[in-house]
Amino acid sequence: MATKKGIIITAIIFGAISAASFMVWFLPQNRGPTVVVSDYGNELDSVRERHELIATEIESNLKSLLNQTLSPDDFINMTQASSTQVTSLAVELIESNPPVEWKESYLYYNEALKKYNDYLTETVSLANKMKSVASPIDLNEELSTLASLKNESDSFIVKSNETRP
What we know:
By secondary structure, the protein is mostly helical.
C-alpha cells in the first residue's frame, strides 16, 4: 500500500513536472536575432554591393572554368558557397521588413537574387557537363540558358531600381 510519505513525494514530483511544462509553454520563444533597419535605401545598396561582389567572382571563375584553368569540382565548390551567400542576402532582405514605400523595390531585388541563384545552379550543371565531356552543342545550350537567367536577374534589378522611393 501507498504510504503518506510516498503520496506526498509523488505529488511534489508531479507538481514540479507540471510547473516546468507550463513555464515552457508560457515563456516567449527565442526566434533568433532580428534585423532592425532604419535606412532602407542603404540596406538595399549594401545587399546590391555584396551581390555584385559575388557575381564578379563567379564570372571570373566561370571564365576560368571555360578556359579549363579551373577544375569543374573546384568551380562547383565555389559556386555552392556563393549560392549560400546569395540565399543569405535574400533572407536579409525579407527579414528587414521594409515599409510599404520600399516593399516593391525589395521584392524585385529579392526576385533578382532568386534568379541569380537559378543562374548559379545552372553553372553547376555546366560544370558537371564539362566533367562528363559533353558535346559542344550541349555546352552552347547551357551557355544560352545561363545568359537568359542572367538577363532575367538583371531585369529584376532594373525594376528594383525603378521602384525605389
